[in-house]
Design goal:
It contains one helix and 19 strands. With about 210 residues, the protein is mainly β. The protein has an eight-stranded antiparallel sheet, with no helix packed on it. The longest helix is centred in the first third of the chain and has 11 residues. The radius of gyration is 18 Å and the shape is globular. It starts with 9 loop residues before the first helix and ends with a strand.
């Protein structure tokens, strides 16, 4: 006689779920009104190594925000192919830009691993297996909003957002917990993320 997962003890259910492949979700943003608002700013101190990591999936050739501070003095965005590079930003009063379209197209409709990191005062961006050198920026900057800058909303999804400061993982918000709805709770740290203009229809099975 066969069995079903509901007959299994708790620990065995976990193992059964892992083997059968639990469904994973992402929340797709509309590129018009939706973004993620953090419950408090994430502060990256001056002259400190850091890494900002996330997964991203988009396909639109437009100006689209990746993150910004509350006053929009610090920001990072994706820019159109006509501008030569994939990314452009201003952090701590210094311009950064790079990842040329001739080397990679970030928004190709597939999930990309994205890391913006500062080491010894210089920024780099790692996209999947490729790394690009950016500018020297030593000052402090803030992150308050994900997926919007200057009215440029990101169309697609961002997930697995985390921040490492001085070699320590300080913030992590997966942005994949459908059951939590509009407000996604931190798995590391105390800063959560709430989707603006949330309807509940944003969730889809991760590709």
């Amino acid at each position: 006689m066969g069995f079903i997962a509901g007959d299994l003890p708790t620990l065995e259910k976990v193992a059964f779920g892992a083997l059968s492949g639990a469904v994973q979700y992402v929340a797709r943003l509309d590129g018009v009104t939706k973004s993620w608002q953090l419950s408090a700013p994430i502060t990256i101190p001056a002259s400190t190594d850091c890494a900002i990591r996330f997964k991203i999936n988009g396909s639109r050739d437009n100006y689209e925000g990746i993150f910004r501070s509350a006053d929009s003095s610090d920001w990072l965005r994706l820019i159109p192919e006509s501008q030569t590079n994939n990314i452009q930003g201003n952090l701590a009063g210094s311009f950064i830009g790079g990842a040329p379209y001739s080397s990679i197209v970030v928004r190709n409709g597939q999930e990309r691993s994205f890391t913006l990191r500062r080491e010894a005062g210089r920024f780099y961006v790692d996209i999947d297996e490729q790394s690009f050198t950016l500018s020297l920026v030593s000052g402090q900057f803030l992150i308050d909003v994900l997926c919007e800058f200057g009215g440029g909303y990101f169309a697609g999804y961002i997930s697995d957002f985390e921040v490492e400061i001085g070699g320590v993982l300080t913030n992590q918000i997966t942005l994949t917990n459908k059951a939590q709805g509009a407000t996604q709770l931190a798995t590391v740290g105390s800063i959560n993320a709430t989707m603006l203009n949330y309807t509940g229809d944003e969730w889809e099975v991760r590709p």
